[in-house]
Amino acid sequence: MQSEDYKFMAEAIEEAKKSLNEGGIPIGAVLVKDGTIVGRGHNKLIQTGSTILHGEMDCIENAGRLKGVDYNKCTLYTTLSPCTMCSGTILLYNISRVVIGENTTLIGPEKLLKDNGVEVTVMQMDECRELLEKFIEENKEKWEAELEKVGFSTD
Fold this sequence. Notes:
The protein is an alpha/beta fold. It has helices at 5-21, 45-48, 55-62, 68-72, 84-92, 110-115, 126-138, 140-149, and strands at 28-33, 36-42, 74-80, 97-102, 119-122. Helix 6 links the parallel strand 4 and strand 5 (119-122). Helix 1 packs parallel to helix 7. The longest helix is centred in the N-terminal third of the chain and has 17 residues, at 5-21.
């Protein structure tokens, strides 16, 4: 891990808390280029009824249209392991590094990222895990409904 990873993951956690305060799933992300946050976002599936506004997607969208060479210089900090859709977007824009807060509650296709040259670092931060676990415990029906929408069985 790099020395600034904790600093930027703290920003992603703040984004996750924004989502939680809005009644959404507590997942947040920030996109960093050359030590500066260029995009931030959080999960907005529940709040907006969106089908694609995961924390990573919202963050990348909020960064605006960067140049291709700029994306390659970026690190995406996300509180949770990116799903297949978010991983595809990371690959599409050639984001070179992804730092994940934790990957025990859900794990995305991290091997796909690694196999395509993305540096993946997992911090296993208790705060990221606890935010999501508490949300799931207190919002079981919402959580199960979201999982069902993407084809996960809740049985």
